[in-house]
């Protein structure tokens, strides 16, 4: 990571990296990082940039709709492809290498889509913070030589948010989002039913005003994570009754709240002493 640089200097480094490409496809989820990378790449390369978004049951539908809206608003060419990770037994078995298996399958499909559009290079939105967590998907990206311009330029998540705000991107304060499979404990099979339960339950929480939240899936028990600052809000009588009702409507029998609150990557705790 480069030290001694202010944000604008770091942005110029990223611009220089992007200028080195004749054209570029961005693996675009609609999240904070890929949205920033896509917006800046579009400023630098114009119509030589395309966004590619994968759609499947593991990706929240509201994120896909946001991605479509973000690209359309900026007149960025946007490709939607279907991914088939739910047909891969190694993925649905939900081992610790789940993310590696997913990305090893997905990135070649994104590259194929890019090549059909006349573009040979693909980039994803990994940042420096991703190097501090268990991220086997990043290993797959490295093996397949998928570019990571935000890491090459030394960007942290907070720096991406700051520059996104400076660029008037609506994603600057958007809550972090990961695929729905990350809500299921390792070694517990991933099913369409469980993914639908999780998505419906999280949508209910978001609609009630809890943007930074997770519903961790433990069979018929939903373990809710919200920010500690939202504890009082979620436990007031009206909200508590609404949450219980909506979570049970999603298919759960029991509703619990994690007293530690929302913690990014909390399902990786069991692995940290193994890797």
TrEMBL record:
Task: Give the GO molecular function terms.
Answer: sulfurtransferase activity
On the tree of life, the source organism's domain of life is Bacteria
GO biological processes: purine nucleotide metabolic process
> Whose protein is this, by species?
uncultured Desulfobacterium sp
Name by which UniProt lists this protein = NAD/GMP synthase domain-containing protein
Supply the SUPFAM superfamilies for this chain: Adenine nucleotide alpha hydrolases-like
Q: Where is the active site?
A: 179 (nucleophile and sulfur donor)
- Every NAD/GMP synthase domain range: 22-110
């Amino acid at each position: 990571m480069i030290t001694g640089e202010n944000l604008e200097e770091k942005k110029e480094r990223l611009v220089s990296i992007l200028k080195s490409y004749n054209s570029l496809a961005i693996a675009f989820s609609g999240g904070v990082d890929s949205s920033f990378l896509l917006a800046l790449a579009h400023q630098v390369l114009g119509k030589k940039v395309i966004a590619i978004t994968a759609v499947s049951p593991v990706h929240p539908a509201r994120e896909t709709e946001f991605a479509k809206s973000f690209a359309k608003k900026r007149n960025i060419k946007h490709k939607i492809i279907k991914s088939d990770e739910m047909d891969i037994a190694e993925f649905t078995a939900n081992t610790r290498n789940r993310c590696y298996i997913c990305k090893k399958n997905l990135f070649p499909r994104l590259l194929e889509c890019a090549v059909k559009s006349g573009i040979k290079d693909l980039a994803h939105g990994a940042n420096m913070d991703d190097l501090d967590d268990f991220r086997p998907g990043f290993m797959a990206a490295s093996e397949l030589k998928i570019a990571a311009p935000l890491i090459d330029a030394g960007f942290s998540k907070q720096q991406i948010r700051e520059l996104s705000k400076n660029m008037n991107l609506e994603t600057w304060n958007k809550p972090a989002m990961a695929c729905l499979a990350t809500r299921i404990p390792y070694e517990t099979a991933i099913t369409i039913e469980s993914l639908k339960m999780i998505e419906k339950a999280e949508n209910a929480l978001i609609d009630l005003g809890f943007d930074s939240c997770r519903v961790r899936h433990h069979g018929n028990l939903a373990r809710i994570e919200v920010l500690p600052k939202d504890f009082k809000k979620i436990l007031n009588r009206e909200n508590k009754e609404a949450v219980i009702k909506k979570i049970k409507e999603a298919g759960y029998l029991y509703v619990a709240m994690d007293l530690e609150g929302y913690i990014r990557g909390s399902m990786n705790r069991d692995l940290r002493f193994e890797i």
